[in-house]
Write the C-alpha coordinates for this entry.
Amino acid sequence: MSSKRSTSQTQRAVAQSTELLQELVAHLRQNRTQLREEWANRITEAQLLTAMTKEEIFTEATSVYDNYVETLATGTFEALQSYSRNLSERIIPRGVETHEVVGIVLLLRDVLARSLFAKYQGDFTMLNRILDAYEPAANRIANTVAVGFVQERERVIRQQQEAIRELSTPVLQVRERLLILPIIGVIDAQRARQLTEQLLRGIRTNRAKVVVIDITGVAAMDATVANHLVQTVEASRLLGATVIVTGLSPEIAQTIVTIGVDLGKMNTVGDLQGGIEQAERLLGYKVVPVADTAST
Amino acid sequence: MEVPILKQGRFLIATIQAALSDADLLQLRRALIDKVIQFRSQGVIVDVTALDVMDSFATRTLRDITNMIRLRGASTVIVGIQPEVAFAMVQLGLTMEGVATALDLEEGLAHLQQRAAGKT
Protein backbone atom coordinates (compact mmCIF):
# COMPACT_ATOMS: atom_id res chain seq x y z
CA MET A 1 0.00 0.00 0.00
CA SER A 2 2.74 2.41 0.92
CA SER A 3 4.47 1.78 -2.40
CA LYS A 4 1.25 2.57 -4.23
CA ARG A 5 0.98 5.83 -2.38
CA SER A 6 4.57 6.74 -3.06
CA THR A 7 4.09 5.92 -6.73
CA SER A 8 1.12 8.21 -7.09
CA GLN A 9 2.96 10.86 -5.13
CA THR A 10 5.90 10.40 -7.42
CA GLN A 11 3.77 10.86 -10.47
CA ARG A 12 2.23 14.00 -9.09
CA ALA A 13 5.57 15.33 -7.99
CA VAL A 14 7.15 14.56 -11.32
CA ALA A 15 4.33 16.30 -13.14
CA GLN A 16 4.49 19.37 -10.92
CA SER A 17 8.18 19.76 -10.70
CA THR A 18 9.73 18.71 -13.96
CA GLU A 19 11.49 22.00 -13.99
CA LEU A 20 13.00 21.43 -10.57
CA LEU A 21 14.11 17.97 -11.59
CA GLN A 22 15.81 19.36 -14.68
CA GLU A 23 17.68 21.80 -12.49
CA LEU A 24 18.61 18.92 -10.24
CA VAL A 25 19.79 16.85 -13.19
CA ALA A 26 21.93 19.71 -14.40
CA HIS A 27 23.50 19.93 -10.95
CA LEU A 28 24.20 16.18 -10.90
CA ARG A 29 25.71 16.26 -14.38
CA GLN A 30 27.92 19.18 -13.45
CA ASN A 31 29.30 17.49 -10.39
CA ARG A 32 29.44 14.03 -11.92
CA THR A 33 33.13 13.37 -11.32
CA GLN A 34 33.18 14.47 -7.73
CA LEU A 35 29.89 12.83 -6.66
CA ARG A 36 30.74 9.62 -8.41
CA GLU A 37 34.06 9.41 -6.65
CA GLU A 38 32.54 10.17 -3.30
CA TRP A 39 29.98 7.47 -3.85
CA ALA A 40 32.58 4.87 -4.85
CA ASN A 41 34.55 5.74 -1.72
CA ARG A 42 31.50 5.38 0.45
CA ILE A 43 30.87 1.96 -1.08
CA THR A 44 34.38 0.81 -0.25
CA GLU A 45 34.17 2.28 3.25
CA ALA A 46 30.92 0.48 3.94
CA GLN A 47 32.61 -2.74 2.76
CA LEU A 48 29.97 -3.42 0.17
CA LEU A 49 30.71 -5.27 -3.06
CA THR A 50 33.73 -6.95 -1.48
CA ALA A 51 33.71 -9.47 -4.31
CA MET A 52 34.75 -6.73 -6.77
CA THR A 53 37.96 -4.74 -7.17
CA LYS A 54 38.10 -1.00 -6.61
CA GLU A 55 38.38 -0.29 -10.33
CA GLU A 56 35.40 -2.48 -11.10
CA ILE A 57 33.38 -0.76 -8.44
CA PHE A 58 34.29 2.59 -9.96
CA THR A 59 33.30 1.50 -13.47
CA GLU A 60 30.01 0.07 -12.29
CA ALA A 61 29.42 3.11 -10.11
CA THR A 62 29.88 5.35 -13.13
CA SER A 63 27.38 3.51 -15.25
CA VAL A 64 24.89 3.26 -12.40
CA TYR A 65 25.33 6.98 -11.72
CA ASP A 66 24.70 7.87 -15.36
CA ASN A 67 21.64 5.67 -15.50
CA TYR A 68 20.40 7.15 -12.27
CA VAL A 69 20.71 10.70 -13.58
CA GLU A 70 19.19 9.65 -16.89
CA THR A 71 16.18 8.20 -15.12
CA LEU A 72 15.76 11.36 -13.08
CA ALA A 73 15.96 13.42 -16.27
CA THR A 74 13.49 11.41 -18.34
CA GLY A 75 11.19 10.20 -15.56
CA THR A 76 10.81 6.84 -17.34
CA PHE A 77 11.88 3.67 -15.64
CA GLU A 78 11.94 1.17 -18.50
CA ALA A 79 15.56 1.84 -19.39
CA LEU A 80 16.55 1.58 -15.74
CA GLN A 81 14.66 -1.70 -15.37
CA SER A 82 16.48 -3.32 -18.25
CA TYR A 83 19.75 -1.82 -17.07
CA SER A 84 19.33 -3.21 -13.58
CA ARG A 85 18.42 -6.62 -14.96
CA ASN A 86 21.52 -6.52 -17.10
CA LEU A 87 23.64 -5.39 -14.15
CA SER A 88 22.24 -8.14 -11.96
CA GLU A 89 23.00 -10.71 -14.63
CA ARG A 90 26.62 -9.63 -14.52
CA ILE A 91 27.10 -9.34 -10.77
CA ILE A 92 25.03 -12.26 -9.46
CA PRO A 93 27.54 -14.89 -10.64
CA ARG A 94 30.19 -12.97 -8.68
CA GLY A 95 28.37 -13.53 -5.44
CA VAL A 96 26.93 -10.08 -4.88
CA GLU A 97 24.21 -10.18 -2.23
CA THR A 98 20.85 -8.45 -2.18
CA HIS A 99 21.74 -6.29 0.81
CA GLU A 100 24.79 -4.98 -1.06
CA VAL A 101 22.78 -3.89 -4.07
CA VAL A 102 20.18 -2.20 -1.91
CA GLY A 103 22.97 -0.72 0.18
CA ILE A 104 24.81 0.92 -2.69
CA VAL A 105 21.69 2.39 -4.23
CA LEU A 106 20.69 3.86 -0.89
CA LEU A 107 24.24 5.20 -0.47
CA LEU A 108 23.97 6.96 -3.82
CA ARG A 109 20.68 8.45 -2.78
CA ASP A 110 22.28 9.76 0.41
CA VAL A 111 25.34 11.11 -1.37
CA LEU A 112 23.20 13.01 -3.82
CA ALA A 113 20.90 14.29 -1.09
CA ARG A 114 23.92 15.59 0.82
CA SER A 115 25.16 17.42 -2.24
CA LEU A 116 21.75 19.02 -2.58
CA PHE A 117 21.89 20.12 1.05
CA ALA A 118 25.28 21.62 0.42
CA LYS A 119 24.14 23.47 -2.66
CA TYR A 120 20.89 24.92 -1.36
CA GLN A 121 21.78 25.41 2.29
CA GLY A 122 21.20 29.12 1.94
CA ASP A 123 17.68 28.75 0.61
CA PHE A 124 15.49 26.44 2.64
CA THR A 125 12.34 26.92 0.56
CA MET A 126 14.21 25.97 -2.56
CA LEU A 127 15.88 23.03 -0.79
CA ASN A 128 12.48 21.79 0.35
CA ARG A 129 11.03 21.98 -3.14
CA ILE A 130 14.04 20.27 -4.66
CA LEU A 131 13.87 17.48 -2.10
CA ASP A 132 10.14 17.13 -2.69
CA ALA A 133 10.92 16.47 -6.32
CA TYR A 134 14.00 14.38 -5.67
CA GLU A 135 13.01 12.02 -2.86
CA PRO A 136 10.08 10.18 -4.47
CA ALA A 137 12.00 9.73 -7.70
CA ALA A 138 15.08 8.51 -5.83
CA ASN A 139 13.04 6.07 -3.77
CA ARG A 140 11.42 4.70 -6.86
CA ILE A 141 14.82 4.25 -8.49
CA ALA A 142 16.10 2.37 -5.45
CA ASN A 143 13.00 0.25 -5.53
CA THR A 144 13.34 -0.52 -9.23
CA VAL A 145 16.96 -1.56 -8.93
CA ALA A 146 16.35 -3.78 -5.90
CA VAL A 147 13.32 -5.43 -7.46
CA GLY A 148 15.24 -5.97 -10.71
CA PHE A 149 18.03 -7.63 -8.79
CA VAL A 150 15.75 -9.92 -6.84
CA GLN A 151 13.79 -10.88 -9.94
CA GLU A 152 16.96 -11.76 -11.80
CA ARG A 153 18.07 -13.83 -8.86
CA GLU A 154 14.79 -15.67 -8.71
CA ARG A 155 15.02 -16.33 -12.43
CA VAL A 156 18.46 -17.88 -11.96
CA ILE A 157 17.18 -20.03 -9.10
CA ARG A 158 14.19 -21.21 -11.13
CA GLN A 159 16.45 -22.06 -14.03
CA GLN A 160 18.76 -24.08 -11.81
CA GLN A 161 15.87 -25.93 -10.20
CA GLU A 162 14.61 -26.93 -13.62
CA ALA A 163 18.05 -28.08 -14.65
CA ILE A 164 18.36 -30.21 -11.52
CA ARG A 165 14.92 -31.65 -12.08
CA GLU A 166 15.71 -32.66 -15.64
CA LEU A 167 19.06 -34.10 -14.76
CA SER A 168 18.00 -36.11 -11.84
CA THR A 169 15.53 -38.72 -13.03
CA PRO A 170 16.89 -41.11 -15.62
CA VAL A 171 15.10 -44.41 -16.12
CA LEU A 172 17.58 -46.83 -17.65
CA GLN A 173 17.05 -50.17 -19.30
CA VAL A 174 19.90 -52.59 -18.52
CA ARG A 175 18.39 -55.75 -19.93
CA GLU A 176 15.28 -56.63 -21.80
CA ARG A 177 12.40 -55.98 -19.36
CA LEU A 178 14.70 -54.78 -16.59
CA LEU A 179 14.86 -51.09 -15.65
CA ILE A 180 17.10 -49.26 -13.23
CA LEU A 181 16.12 -46.04 -11.51
CA PRO A 182 19.05 -44.51 -9.67
CA ILE A 183 17.89 -41.79 -7.29
CA ILE A 184 20.42 -39.21 -6.22
CA GLY A 185 20.01 -36.28 -3.90
CA VAL A 186 17.03 -34.97 -2.00
CA ILE A 187 13.55 -36.22 -2.70
CA ASP A 188 10.71 -33.80 -2.07
CA ALA A 189 7.05 -34.33 -2.81
CA GLN A 190 7.24 -32.86 -6.28
CA ARG A 191 10.29 -34.84 -7.28
CA ALA A 192 8.87 -38.04 -5.87
CA ARG A 193 5.78 -37.52 -7.98
CA GLN A 194 7.85 -36.89 -11.05
CA LEU A 195 10.01 -39.94 -10.39
CA THR A 196 6.95 -42.11 -10.09
CA GLU A 197 5.42 -40.75 -13.26
CA GLN A 198 8.60 -41.24 -15.21
CA LEU A 199 9.07 -44.74 -13.87
CA LEU A 200 5.51 -45.76 -14.71
CA ARG A 201 5.89 -44.39 -18.21
CA GLY A 202 9.22 -46.22 -18.53
CA ILE A 203 7.64 -49.48 -17.41
CA ARG A 204 5.03 -49.09 -20.11
CA THR A 205 7.29 -48.13 -22.98
CA ASN A 206 9.97 -50.72 -22.16
CA ARG A 207 7.46 -53.40 -21.14
CA ALA A 208 9.47 -53.89 -17.98
CA LYS A 209 8.80 -56.72 -15.58
CA VAL A 210 11.34 -55.86 -12.94
CA VAL A 211 12.56 -52.47 -11.75
CA VAL A 212 15.54 -51.86 -9.50
CA ILE A 213 15.33 -48.57 -7.60
CA ASP A 214 18.74 -47.68 -6.24
CA ILE A 215 18.74 -45.15 -3.41
CA THR A 216 22.45 -45.26 -2.57
CA GLY A 217 22.62 -41.57 -3.47
CA VAL A 218 19.81 -40.52 -1.17
CA ALA A 219 21.32 -38.95 1.92
CA ALA A 220 18.33 -38.85 4.20
CA MET A 221 14.83 -40.14 4.31
CA ASP A 222 11.85 -39.07 6.37
CA ALA A 223 8.37 -40.51 6.69
CA THR A 224 7.04 -38.57 3.70
CA VAL A 225 9.78 -39.73 1.39
CA ALA A 226 9.49 -43.32 2.59
CA ASN A 227 5.77 -43.23 1.90
CA HIS A 228 6.44 -41.87 -1.57
CA LEU A 229 8.73 -44.80 -2.15
CA VAL A 230 6.06 -47.23 -0.98
CA GLN A 231 3.58 -45.55 -3.33
CA THR A 232 5.97 -45.86 -6.25
CA VAL A 233 6.44 -49.54 -5.53
CA GLU A 234 2.70 -50.16 -5.33
CA ALA A 235 1.92 -48.19 -8.46
CA SER A 236 4.56 -50.17 -10.34
CA ARG A 237 3.02 -53.38 -9.10
CA LEU A 238 -0.36 -52.32 -10.50
CA LEU A 239 1.35 -52.18 -13.88
CA GLY A 240 2.59 -55.68 -13.37
CA ALA A 241 6.20 -54.88 -12.52
CA THR A 242 8.13 -56.11 -9.50
CA VAL A 243 10.22 -53.50 -7.70
CA ILE A 244 13.48 -54.18 -5.91
CA VAL A 245 14.88 -51.39 -3.73
CA THR A 246 18.64 -51.38 -3.24
CA GLY A 247 21.24 -49.33 -1.46
CA LEU A 248 19.49 -48.48 1.78
CA SER A 249 22.20 -47.04 3.99
CA PRO A 250 22.37 -48.13 7.63
CA GLU A 251 21.13 -44.68 8.69
CA ILE A 252 18.13 -44.84 6.40
CA ALA A 253 17.35 -48.38 7.48
CA GLN A 254 17.36 -47.24 11.11
CA THR A 255 15.23 -44.19 10.39
CA ILE A 256 12.68 -46.21 8.49
CA VAL A 257 12.35 -48.76 11.27
CA THR A 258 12.13 -46.01 13.88
CA ILE A 259 9.46 -44.10 12.01
CA GLY A 260 7.57 -47.32 11.54
CA VAL A 261 6.91 -47.05 7.81
CA ASP A 262 5.57 -50.34 6.54
CA LEU A 263 8.17 -51.58 4.12
CA GLY A 264 6.92 -55.13 4.30
CA LYS A 265 5.61 -54.97 0.77
CA MET A 266 8.99 -53.87 -0.47
CA ASN A 267 11.63 -56.10 -1.86
CA THR A 268 14.97 -54.84 -0.56
CA VAL A 269 18.47 -55.98 -1.45
CA GLY A 270 21.71 -54.64 -0.02
CA ASP A 271 23.41 -53.15 -3.02
CA LEU A 272 22.77 -52.47 -6.68
CA GLN A 273 24.70 -55.53 -7.79
CA GLY A 274 22.62 -57.80 -5.58
CA GLY A 275 19.48 -56.11 -6.85
CA ILE A 276 20.38 -56.67 -10.47
CA GLU A 277 21.30 -60.28 -9.75
CA GLN A 278 17.97 -60.91 -8.10
CA ALA A 279 16.16 -59.17 -10.95
CA GLU A 280 17.96 -61.41 -13.43
CA ARG A 281 16.87 -64.46 -11.48
CA LEU A 282 13.28 -63.23 -11.55
CA LEU A 283 13.49 -62.73 -15.29
CA GLY A 284 15.14 -66.11 -15.85
CA TYR A 285 18.52 -64.78 -16.89
CA LYS A 286 21.70 -66.46 -15.83
CA VAL A 287 24.96 -64.63 -16.19
CA VAL A 288 27.96 -66.95 -16.57
CA PRO A 289 31.61 -66.05 -17.13
CA VAL A 290 32.74 -66.80 -20.70
CA ALA A 291 35.42 -69.24 -19.43
CA ASP A 292 32.77 -71.45 -17.80
CA THR A 293 30.67 -71.73 -20.94
CA ALA A 294 33.74 -72.59 -23.00
CA SER A 295 34.78 -75.44 -20.73
CA THR A 296 31.36 -77.09 -20.56
CA MET B 1 -23.07 -51.44 -20.86
CA GLU B 2 -22.35 -55.15 -20.87
CA VAL B 3 -18.77 -56.35 -20.83
CA PRO B 4 -18.07 -59.05 -23.40
CA ILE B 5 -16.45 -62.17 -21.94
CA LEU B 6 -14.47 -64.24 -24.44
CA LYS B 7 -13.34 -67.79 -23.97
CA GLN B 8 -9.77 -68.39 -25.04
CA GLY B 9 -8.73 -71.98 -24.45
CA ARG B 10 -8.66 -72.56 -20.71
CA PHE B 11 -8.96 -68.86 -19.94
CA LEU B 12 -11.64 -66.21 -19.96
CA ILE B 13 -10.95 -62.70 -21.15
CA ALA B 14 -13.19 -59.80 -20.13
CA THR B 15 -12.30 -56.56 -21.88
CA ILE B 16 -13.84 -53.47 -20.37
CA GLN B 17 -14.55 -51.06 -23.22
CA ALA B 18 -15.75 -47.93 -21.46
CA ALA B 19 -16.39 -46.51 -18.03
CA LEU B 20 -18.73 -48.81 -16.11
CA SER B 21 -21.51 -47.99 -13.72
CA ASP B 22 -21.66 -49.78 -10.38
CA ALA B 23 -24.49 -52.00 -11.68
CA ASP B 24 -22.38 -52.94 -14.73
CA LEU B 25 -19.51 -53.92 -12.45
CA LEU B 26 -21.74 -56.15 -10.35
CA GLN B 27 -23.13 -57.69 -13.49
CA LEU B 28 -19.58 -58.38 -14.71
CA ARG B 29 -18.75 -60.03 -11.40
CA ARG B 30 -21.81 -62.29 -11.63
CA ALA B 31 -21.13 -63.20 -15.27
CA LEU B 32 -17.48 -64.04 -14.63
CA ILE B 33 -18.23 -66.32 -11.70
CA ASP B 34 -20.89 -68.14 -13.67
CA LYS B 35 -18.72 -68.59 -16.73
CA VAL B 36 -15.69 -69.82 -14.80
CA ILE B 37 -17.81 -72.79 -13.73
CA GLN B 38 -19.58 -73.17 -17.04
CA PHE B 39 -16.37 -73.36 -19.06
CA ARG B 40 -14.23 -74.99 -16.37
CA SER B 41 -11.72 -72.16 -16.85
CA GLN B 42 -8.38 -72.06 -15.07
CA GLY B 43 -7.88 -68.36 -15.26
CA VAL B 44 -9.57 -65.04 -15.88
CA ILE B 45 -8.11 -61.88 -17.37
CA VAL B 46 -9.83 -58.56 -16.82
CA ASP B 47 -8.49 -55.96 -19.25
CA VAL B 48 -8.92 -52.40 -18.01
CA THR B 49 -6.78 -50.66 -20.66
CA ALA B 50 -9.69 -48.50 -21.75
CA LEU B 51 -10.37 -47.15 -18.26
CA ASP B 52 -8.90 -43.78 -17.40
CA VAL B 53 -10.48 -43.68 -13.96
CA MET B 54 -10.68 -46.35 -11.28
CA ASP B 55 -12.72 -45.44 -8.25
CA SER B 56 -12.89 -47.28 -4.97
CA PHE B 57 -15.95 -49.26 -5.97
CA ALA B 58 -14.34 -50.51 -9.18
CA THR B 59 -11.18 -51.40 -7.27
CA ARG B 60 -13.10 -53.24 -4.61
CA THR B 61 -15.21 -55.10 -7.14
CA LEU B 62 -12.10 -56.22 -9.03
CA ARG B 63 -10.60 -57.44 -5.78
CA ASP B 64 -13.85 -59.24 -4.92
CA ILE B 65 -13.88 -60.85 -8.35
CA THR B 66 -10.34 -62.10 -7.77
CA ASN B 67 -11.22 -63.56 -4.39
CA MET B 68 -14.44 -65.16 -5.57
CA ILE B 69 -12.78 -66.70 -8.58
CA ARG B 70 -10.04 -68.02 -6.35
CA LEU B 71 -12.73 -69.77 -4.31
CA ARG B 72 -13.90 -71.27 -7.57
CA GLY B 73 -10.43 -72.68 -8.11
CA ALA B 74 -9.15 -70.34 -10.79
CA SER B 75 -6.83 -67.35 -10.78
CA THR B 76 -7.37 -63.79 -12.01
CA VAL B 77 -5.08 -61.19 -13.53
CA ILE B 78 -5.94 -57.53 -13.97
CA VAL B 79 -4.13 -56.18 -17.03
CA GLY B 80 -3.62 -52.82 -18.68
CA ILE B 81 -3.84 -50.39 -15.74
CA GLN B 82 -2.65 -47.06 -17.13
CA PRO B 83 0.29 -45.33 -15.44
CA GLU B 84 -1.83 -42.30 -14.47
CA VAL B 85 -4.55 -44.56 -13.12
CA ALA B 86 -2.01 -46.57 -11.13
CA PHE B 87 -0.59 -43.39 -9.63
CA ALA B 88 -4.00 -42.02 -8.73
CA MET B 89 -5.05 -45.33 -7.20
CA VAL B 90 -1.98 -45.52 -5.01
CA GLN B 91 -2.49 -41.96 -3.83
CA LEU B 92 -6.05 -42.81 -2.87
CA GLY B 93 -4.80 -45.91 -1.05
CA LEU B 94 -6.47 -48.33 -3.48
CA THR B 95 -3.62 -50.77 -3.84
CA MET B 96 -5.50 -54.00 -4.65
CA GLU B 97 -3.54 -56.19 -2.28
CA GLY B 98 -3.29 -59.81 -3.27
CA VAL B 99 -4.51 -59.18 -6.80
CA ALA B 100 -2.22 -60.22 -9.63
CA THR B 101 -1.55 -57.52 -12.22
CA ALA B 102 0.18 -57.47 -15.58
CA LEU B 103 1.13 -54.87 -18.12
CA ASP B 104 -1.15 -56.00 -20.95
CA LEU B 105 -3.15 -58.90 -22.31
CA GLU B 106 -0.09 -60.73 -23.58
CA GLU B 107 1.65 -60.53 -20.21
CA GLY B 108 -1.52 -61.58 -18.46
CA LEU B 109 -1.85 -64.68 -20.62
CA ALA B 110 1.82 -65.53 -20.05
CA HIS B 111 1.28 -65.16 -16.30
CA LEU B 112 -1.77 -67.45 -16.30
CA GLN B 113 -0.01 -70.02 -18.45
CA GLN B 114 2.93 -70.02 -16.06
CA ARG B 115 0.60 -70.53 -13.12
CA ALA B 116 -1.24 -73.33 -14.89
CA ALA B 117 2.06 -75.00 -15.74
CA GLY B 118 3.15 -74.71 -12.11
CA LYS B 119 -0.03 -76.34 -10.84
CA THR B 120 -0.04 -79.39 -13.06
Q: What stands out?
A: The two ends of chain A are 86 Å apart (CA to CA).
